[in-house]
Amino acid sequence: MRVYELAKILGKSNKDLMKVLEDLGVEVKTHMSSIDNDAAQLVEDALRPAKKGAKDAAKKPAITLDARATVKTAAEKIGVSSAEAVKALMTAGIMLPATGAADGKVLEVLAKAFDVEFDVIPAEPEAPESARKSPKKTAKHGKKEPAPPRHLTPRPPIVTIMGHVDHGKTTLLDTIRHTNVTAYEAGGITQHIGAYIVEHEKKRIVFLDTPGHEAFTAMRARGAGVTDIVILVVAADDGVMPQTREAIDHVKAAGVPIVVAVNKVDKPNAKPDKVRQQLADVGLVPEEWGGEVVMVDISAKSGNGIDRLLEMVLLVAEMQELTGDAAAPPQGVVIEAELDRGKGPVATVIVRQGTLKRGDVVLFGSTWGKIRALIDTTGKGVNDAGPSTPVEMLGLIDVPQPGEVFSVAASEREARDALSRSRERLAGAPARRASFEDLYSQMREGRLPQLTLLVKCDVQGSVEALCASLEKIATSEVGVSIVHRGVGRIAESDVMLASTSNAVIVGFNVRPDANAKRIAETDGVEIRLYNVIYDVIDDVKAAMEGLLKPNLREQRQGEVEIREVFKIPKAGKIAGCHVTQGLVRRSSRVSVVRAGIVIWDGHIATLRHFKDETREVKAGFDCGIALAGFQDFEQGDVLEAYEVIEEKRTL
Ligand code: GDP
Q: How far apart are the first and last CA of the chain?
């Protein structure tokens, strides 16, 4: 029997039941874990008498401590040795001597470890230090939940669907919407506002309507992510594919839990177990194999398994204890926005805290507005929206970006002022992220240098070789973590992931596309391009010694498109080209780029303008180019012309 099933039978929450099991010494990982009959019986027995006497039995008198208490004094009051208390703290990851201050976190751990409750009374006036630190009159730290400081109430989880193309994301969204949206409008048309609310067993789930990890990471890069849980769709007839892996990396970097939907199990060639094996290989171990990831077989097409999928999403949500405070100052995140010809700027937002009201003045990072109307997921006008509620708002001055966070301002004037202040600030300081050069300063400050990388290569073999070499450095001199590795050009989503993870992008025989380049510049993400694996390793090492050589920077000169390929007897192949940007010189080095991948890099053998050899051809003109030692170019390939210049390091 699964823990959650037993919880249902006993009418307990999963969390409470997990606690009971823990107290009984039954080891379970999650509420999805199975327990045998004996254990189930044990729980039932334990709970029955508890009904009568539990309240009194559990109510041990709280131990009173003053705010200056140390671990030692706390241990004395509990009735254990200082060593035992220190050990309990160490087990919980807190390194503290017995003379260390017993603050909130420490008391929480001790309370849990020794099954007691503390009452902290304010320190005497002669200890202003600690008194200032805990301004509250009395703080309770106990194994029972501390009294909530605010009016926190559970809120529905917000879910994004991700996965490889054609694995069934859209179909799953559609099927869920059609079978589970209760407030389905009379005409059968729900308005599209970028999110919808589903009800399952009287509990709500909010689905974001933009599947895919690009939108997910873009939102995170601009401000805050809203997603609480990701459903990763993997087709059982296709298995783990590049975008599956990419999605996993993006979600992991965000620290969001994943529920896997193994889709298309209705197909005759479906191999759901093989999918589980592949997922386990990339670090998502199915819960039924002793791992932590819930996986559900479904058919998005027929609807089979979807109820169970929703049930699992709710279970995972329950474990996360998602709460919202309807009375807090309202704030939220934009999930979609556009300029509507009739309505003006329209933004769909999800309220995260507080209650947003019609007439509120809302302040975004890039704009503001006074809410003229709020429209819910069924297309109805509403007066307010609480935590986890998606609503469309009208009345903004301008269109904000997905991922922008908003708050509520006291007046229109305050909103305007705040906006102009933040614009000034932004204009002054461009963001600066991690770079290789940081390594040296980290070393000098006596820290273990940490290098976070995102690695893109032209072929899978290079990805493996490069990452293996980098991880080898990691053990000895520098902490290296690779947030994502993949094959292909450096794309916008890579730069965004690097930006949110504070990673340096290492490209091996690949190039960023135009969008990626632009965002990297504005976000200050360092992109380092290499042709030789050892150069990467050398650079990391040199960076640690503060000896990074002057950057040999490729100074771009121009871009040339191959429009035709001529075969000239004896001379070989000549590329008939058009210079589309900048210029190309006889002395230029060129990279031959096909679909974002560098397939060759080297020198020009001849450069001709009409019949004549020439030293330089500018944008807008045609030319003939022969490359020194390479003839496998094709029509449509792009030649990037550049020269190599030495750039002094600036620290
Ligand atoms: P997306 O690119 O991930 O959004 O994938 P789609 O939802 O567009 O689905 C791709 C194709 O797979 C479509 O032709 C769907 O009809 C089909 N498909 C999706 N789910 C299932 C399923 O559970 N069973 C079968 N047999 N086909 C499915």
A: 61
Atom of ligand 1 nearest to the CA of 165: 2
Q: How confident is the model at residue 138 (pLDDT cuts 50, 70, 90)?
A: very low
CA distances from 554 to 67, 332, 509, 528, 557 (A): 61, 43, 13, 11, 9
Residue nearest ligand 1's atom 25 by CA: 264
Task: Write the DSSP symbol of residue 286.
Answer: B
Distance from the alpha carbon of residue 235 to the mean position of ligand 1, in angstroms: 8
Q: How many residues does the chain have?
A: 651
φ and ψ of 585, to 5 deg: -115, 160
Backbone angles phi, psi at 274, to 5 degrees: -65, -40
pLDDT digits (tens, 9 = 90+) for 84-120: 887 787 777 676 777 778 877 888 888 888 888 888 7
Residue of 171, 238, 298, 301 to test ligand 1 pocket, by largest number of atoms within 8 Å of CB: 171
Sheet of 158-163, strands arranged across: 195-200, 203-208, 158-163, 229-235, 258-263, 294-297
- What secondary structure letter does DSSP report for 448? P
Six token digits for residue 24? 């009984």
For residues 143 and 111, give the distance between their C-alpha atoms in angstroms, rounded to a whole number.
Answer: 6
Q: Which residue has the tokens 């950057």?
A: 551
Centre of ligand 1 to C-alpha 199, Å, is 23
Q: What is the mean pLDDT of residues 471-496?
A: 82
Distance 236 CA to ligand 1 centre (A): 11
Q: Pocket around ligand 1: residues whose beta carbon is below 6 Å from it?
A: 163, 165-171, 263-264, 266-267, 299-301
Q: Whose CA is nearest to atom 18 of ligand 1?
A: 168
| CA 526 to centroid of ligand 1, rounded, Å | 38
Residue written as token pair 């479906």: 270
On the CB side of 309, CA atoms within 13 Å amount to 28
- Helix 14-24 vs helix 306-320: angle between axes, to the nearest 10 degrees? 70
Say what the alpha-carbon torsion angle 235, 236, 242, 244 is, to the nearest 10 degrees.
60
DSSP secondary structure, 123-191, as one string: PPTT-HHHHHH--SS-EEEESSPPPPSS-EEE---EEEEEESTTSSHHHHHHHHHHHH-SS--TTS---
Q: Nearest to residue 216, comparing CAs of 225, 207, 205?
A: 225
Lowest mean pLDDT among 13-22, 339-348, 593-602: 13-22
In angstroms, the Cα distances linking 486 to 283, 436, 479, 483 are 16, 20, 21, 10
Nearest ligand 1 atom to alpha carbon 167: 3
> How far does the centroid of ligand 1 lie from the alpha carbon of residue 211, in Å?
13
CA of 168 to the centre of ligand 1 (A): 4
The answer for residues whose C-beta is within 8 angstroms of residue 47's C-beta and 6 or more apart is: 10, 12, 20
- Protein residue closest via CA to atom 9 of ligand 1: 168
Q: Which protein residue has the closest C-alpha to ligand 1 atom 6?
A: 168
Of the pLDDT bands very low, low, confident and very high (cuts 50, 70, 90), residue 64 is confident
Task: Quote the ligand 1 centre to 263 CA distance (angstroms).
Answer: 8
Please give the domain boundaries of the chain with CATH numbers for all domains: 3-150 (no CATH), 154-323 (3.40.50.300), 331-428 (2.40.30.10), 440-547 (3.40.50.10050), 551-647 (2.40.30.10)
Question: Ligand 1: which residue has its CA nearest to atom 22?
Answer: 264
